[in-house]
């Protein structure tokens, strides 16, 4: 049975489809947009600074060997320190500077250093270190932009996520893509790079959450339109590509 993704995968096979491939040869010829890193910002909203404390030291190979998805085992709240470490070491700015550009590296690799992804946090339980509500991760300042403080009922959560156990989770991390940041350089091929990067962030969350005692489950079962409405994004220029549920 033919599916659309068969056609799309073939259409995105050309590395520079939809762009001028000659520009890839000389970085000095790149247009300004290719060399500019864009950050989403919210003017006039309250900001919660995040701590810069590293998670407890642990053996990397033990973390990988014991990595597993944890479905809704909510017993304790997730602290700001836990959330801060998970965000910093999965998708946050690091202290290392890329010597050729002077740009600080992030925890995740990004095709062409375009960084098309934005990260939002839904605090679902009152026991968490931040009040129930909707937050945007301000990667540049390592802080949370407070978009909306509000409670989530079990019914609210079930209207956003497919699986019943989602209502027992502490937090949801929503990863969205601003596609044009990558598409302006890579054309049709950009869609592959965007999804690869979302996977890098997801794995980083699994690995950085483990030393904090936080369980993570990557989830494909999302009600995208409901979440787009909650985040006030259009689903076209910016769209949900991944969700991860956190519990402690």
Percent in strands? 15-25%
Q: Find the CATH topology.
A: NADH Oxidase
- The CATH architecture is 3-Layer(aba) Sandwich
Radius of gyration: 19 Å
Q: What string gives the helices and strands in order?
A: HHEHHEEEEEHEHHEHE
> What is the CATH superfamily?
NADH Oxidase
Query: What global shape is seen?
Result: globular
Binned, the helix content reads 25-40%
Question: How many structural domains can be distinguished in the coordinates?
Answer: 1
CATH class: Alpha Beta
pLDDT < 50 stretches: none
Count every helix, treating DSSP H or I runs of 4 or more residues as helices.
8
Termini gap: 42 Å
The secondary structure category is: alpha+beta
Strand order of the largest sheet: 1-6-5-4-7-9-8
Provide mean pLDDT, rounded: 90
The total of beta strands comes to: 9
Question: How does the major sheet shape up?
Answer: 7 strands, antiparallel
SSE topology sketch:
Layout: H1 4-11, H2 32-35, E1 47-49, H3 60-66, H4 80-91, E2 93-97, E3 104-106, E4 117-123, E5 133-138, E6 143-149, H5 154-158, E7 171-178, H6 180-186, H7 190-209, E8 215-219, H8 224-231, E9 238-247
Antiparallel strand pairs: 1-6, 2-3, 4-5, 4-7, 5-6, 7-9, 8-9
Helix pairs in contact: 4-7, 6-7
Descriptive report:
With 248 residues, the chain is α+β, with helices and mostly antiparallel strands. It has one domain: NADH Oxidase. The protein is built from eight helices and nine strands. It has helices spanning 4-11, 32-35, 60-66, 80-91, 154-158, 180-186, 190-209, 224-231; strands at 47-49, 93-97, 104-106, 117-123, 133-138, 143-149, 171-178, 215-219, 238-247. The strands form two sheets. The protein has a seven-stranded antiparallel sheet, sandwiched between helices. A two-stranded antiparallel sheet has the order 2-3. The N and C termini lie far apart (42 Å).
